[in-house]
Amino acid sequence: MYRTTFAIVDLSALAHNIRLLQGRLAPGVRLLVAVKADAYGHGVRPVVEVLRREGVHQVAVASLEEALQIRTFDKDIPILILGAVGVDECLVAAEYKLDVLYTDVCPLSDIPRLPKPLAMHIAIDTGMNRLGLKSTDAVLSVIEAMADREDIRLAGVCTHLACADASDLSHATRQVERLLEAVRAMGDKGCTPPLVHAANSAGLLRGDAWQFDMVRVGIAAYGYSPDPDVLPMPALRPVMHMYTSITRVADVRPGETIGYGATYTAQRSMRVATIAVGYADGFPRILSNRGVVRVRGCEVPIVGRVCMDQAMIDVSDVPAAQVGDFVTVFGIDPPSAWTASAWRALGPDNRANWLQETFALAANEEGRNVLSLSTVAPLAETIPYEILCQINRRVPKLYVEA
């Protein structure tokens, strides 16, 4: 490691979150965890290995390509593809033991007889208007068609809740009612789906009313409530923490401007630091003149536009700030062992191990605050999901079991 911009992925926090969520399940309810988009940017292989160890029933991805990536290191873990699939994908999914959603993209009649059975979950559009069958009659028609196919197995019926994290539950309640109508109609035709699932992270945090047979969680596994104001869950632990360092500190006089476009003009004498992170790393450009980071235990503002590889911050109120100081982009404050002199004393080949070991040792260090993505994301007019998924591959991810 040469550049001091990196992310720590705390797999013990992931395991903690999974156990916490499992503890909220009603008896007999299964847990599925979404690992699409490289496990929300955390790295799919280490995440899946933890989920397997913690007894998660199934994982979900967005595409066949993502599922096949998991199959390169785990041949057996149950995988559900949540995106629409066509005939070609169905053929491959059957070969690799992958569950798929049935939507109207690929009629059963278009799928040739399969040499291996394919498990399908019927997606019902109850109000999201994204994927799925919109009428109970359409669901019953598919059930009848499946009955004539020994190579296609009904694995479940599901829907996706659009507003489970809202303060007003009327939309989610109507969606659940429409799902249950379809399930009852299936029962009247003598078909009981093996699994019924609807609840996402928000649905699980609401309680057990919408849990049915399985719950599909995403962001909660990675340490965040879908809406911390409506559904506070302080016991969740953020899994990813991102850091950079100060590369320059300079005095700025009143009237001087900072950054591209001269969008910030100093109104007083200031100390401005440059940090080695930018929008190419996944640090949103919209945080220009509005975002914050943490330096030496203090929250400080971004000044000027976020650049591709760098950003500037106002450290006027942090007189001890100096070149080499570690900076919290989001997550927990750095361990006290992380100093510029300690970094320089190590060779590039030894720095990653040192960061991992010192982070793990400092897990119980007192006085370490957190700059939560629940704070950062609204400043960027987005949600924690997007920032996590956007952390660029050039940012090394260091895995720890704190």
Automatic annotation (TrEMBL):
Question: Which PROSITE patterns does the entry mention?
Answer: ALANINE_RACEMASE
- Which InterPro entries has this protein been placed in? Ala_racemase, Ala_racemase/Decarboxylase_C, Ala_racemase_C, Ala_racemase_N, Ala_racemase_pyridoxalP-BS, PLP-binding_barrel
Pathway membership of this protein?
Answer: Amino-acid biosynthesis; D-alanine biosynthesis; D-alanine from L-alanine: step 1/1
Organism placement in taxonomy: Bacteria, Bacillati, Bacillota, Bacilli, Bacillales
Q: Name one GO biological process term.
A: D-alanine biosynthetic process
What role is this protein assigned? Catalyzes the interconversion of L-alanine and D-alanine. May also act on other amino acids.
In this chain, where does the modification N6-(pyridoxal phosphate)lysine occur? K36
Protein name from the UniProt record: Alanine racemase
Q: Where is the active site?
A: K36, Y260
Keywords of this entry: Isomerase, Pyridoxal phosphate
Where in this chain does the record put each Alanine racemase C-terminal domain? 239-400
The organism named in the record is Alicyclobacillus sacchari
Q: Which residues form the signal peptide?
A: none
- Annotated transmembrane regions: none
| Highest taxon of the lineage | Bacteria
Which positions does UniProt annotate for substrate binding?
A: R130, M308
Single GO cellular component term: cytosol
SUPFAM superfamilies recorded: Alanine racemase C-terminal domain-like (SSF50621), PLP-binding barrel (SSF51419)
According to its UniProt record, which reaction does this protein catalyse? L-alanine = D-alanine
Member of which family? Belongs to the alanine racemase family.
A GO MF label: alanine racemase activity
